[in-house]
User: What shape does this take?
Amino acid sequence: MNQNKDQRDDLENDEVSAKDNETSAAAGGEALDLEGLDLTVETVEERISPSETNVFDK
Amino acid sequence: MIQLPSNDFPVTLAFPPQGHWTQPHLALPCLKAWLHASGYSDVDQMDLSVEAFDHFLTAESLTRAAEKVERRLPLERFQGDRLPLGQMRAWRAAAESAASAQSLIDRVESAKAILRGQDHPVDSERGFWDPDRYVPAVRTLYHGLRLISSAHYPSELTPHNFTMAYSNDSSEEVLAATLDEEQNPFIEFYREQVMPRLLARKPKLLGLSVLYGSQLIPALTLARMVKAALPDCHITMGGGFLAYIGDKVMAAPGMAECFDSIVFHEGERPLLMLCEALRTGEPLHDVGSLAWWDRSNPEEPVVVKNMSAHPIKLDDAPAPDLEGLPLDKYFSPQVVIPYDVNRGCYYGECTFCTLPTVIGPGYRTRSSETIARHVVELRDRYSSTHFNFITDCMPPGMIKDLPEQLIEAEAGITWWADARIEPKAYDADGARRLYESGCRKLLFGFESATKRILKMMMKGQSLKSVVEVARNCTEANISVTFYAMVGFPTETREEARATLEFIEQHADIIREVSLQTFHIDEVAKTYKEPEQFGIRVLDAPGDLALYHDYEADVGMTQEEAAEMFEEMMASFRRNLAIFSGDNIFYFMQKSHYFLHLAAGETPQGFSERCAERTAARAERQAEPELTVSRGLVSIPLGFSHSDAVRTLGDPLARAARPDFLTGRYVRDADRVAEEKLPPLDPKERFLLYDPENGEFVELRDGGSRVLSALRECGTLGALVEAQRDAGASDAAIQKLEQFAAELHRLGVLRAAATPTSAPKALATARG
Assistant: This one.
């Protein structure tokens, strides 16, 4: 599992490092191009399958 | 009474995975009690289903699973210019595992403790009663099973089902599945956790209880392993599912290598006869209701099917014996004891119902006096006052008598049960007496709001009486659940929508709906007399096939019925409080909502608090003190996770893999689904997993950048201030705040000083 954790950390680090300049800039007071950024948030309500609604048999 | 045998005839009864995980199943405790009362004192029982859930949901098992997923399904493998349906499930498993595995490993033990009420010594302080701790705990366990499933891809183990790529319809596939170490998670579980105990015990007889299709492969997997290690142990199987397909299983090549016999229908008397025959070395010809292999010629075992055994007189049967079951491992804070008040159905007319087939012919009941006496015994023996009365339905006389007996015996219990609409029995006074006796929830077979359909079903109930009974129960504070069916032969979309409308119009008296799609099995009246129902039953390929597709000239096709199921469920999610948002976990975990009712909550109070909880979440705003949820994980993806989940949830995609419960597995469905469900195009996305909530959220690159900036700044207020200082316009700040409000609603951003949902309202009833 350590491998997995490392991978996850790496991914996070990659993400952070790719955005380092912009993030630091934001924290330092420089504007993000908020109006130009796509801030869509997506979630999907997992569909309930028939096997999960059968309280009689299950 | 038989001659008491000595203790040198050890019997082991086992319930193989997968069954539900919140409370014990009834079959083995009934068999153990019967054998014990008949002189067999050395009877062990194992709930391998709940043991498997417990074993898989450990930090150690999840760690192993995560390592396996990395080996079998590395995310890097899915780089390309498109993600076809055939790879989507694997990609989703890889993505979710990468985002959530470590959090699940860290939190799985505390999640189990919350569901079991083992997280705090004081009952009222336990997380089970607090939705903000309960729901994330349930989600953690669900995701934990997804991780275990991913490690055995494409198999899927959930609290509700177990499916593999192998179909139950074919003995060849079933037997191949029992040997597939990569995909069958139970081989390793049995080898490490179960076989050492069986080898030490060396039972003379192993009985496997197979109630559901989801248990067939796991049962045969174990049987095969035991047969190889303990060739002298007689392995028999029985249970509801085998009552349907037992003859086919016996006729299938290769099965004789796995086990020795099948008991059909009720097991008590045949199992005792089998013990006697094996113990005394008598041939098996006189063991009632048994199909077995005569191995006189070991090279060519011959199937022998014996005469049926007489059903037992139920009132003489002892109370179920739960001794030996791992009562602390069920995923409920209190044991809900199953108890059979009767067997069979006194009504027995419904044309869709084949349940009498399972238990055998006839209707038998225990007397109300016996029930009350047993309930008190069980209450004291297992220190639990919660009961699930197992019954197809109680006859009117018992509805009147049982409450009186329970009250007179001062049983002091709470209970729930299935029921049939009987307006005279469930009048206002009757409902009040039921509540006084501890009844907190009744589940009625409603099925449809269309008279024509009800007539075809021979339900023998009117909509007027349905409303009357539900209202009387509601006014007595008994929660009402309706079973409903979609897709009965000739039913139209309009008729299904009428059922939906009827239920939602009566949402004040119908708290839950157990919605099912109609399907035809080989013992159903619809199978035997299809012309009566205006359908043509199609052949089902496969030597173990139980369910059949059909065609009708009028009404919905099976595909349309599956779509209508989706439409109805989506509507219930919007309009029934207990189905709204993540409150639905209370419905999906058998007995959990009941335990709230048993603790003093009213159906109306619980519904209101569910609605408040959903509303409170929807109303969350962009507050300045919002911070990024602790432990939030973000990983970059090359495709959209939400697009994949949506596609995989399509009924077409679902039909492309075997579903042991509904039988809606169509052999060429994968080809049809591939044609109709387009592949995903590459998209730059970020998948967030919030371990505090146990939810996945997807952002675009822009959202991920803002989230990183917010993390840097500490709070939303600080980020807003920094952006204003840097010259951001009002419109830009408004957009940022809308984004933050949405993430607040989803739990990705949290206000540390404010509760994450409505006050601990659901906990208040505990006092």
About this structure: Chain B touches chain A through 89 residues (CB under 8 Å). Chain B has a mean pLDDT of 92. Residues 334-599 of chain B form a domain with the TIM Barrel fold (CATH 3.20.20.70).
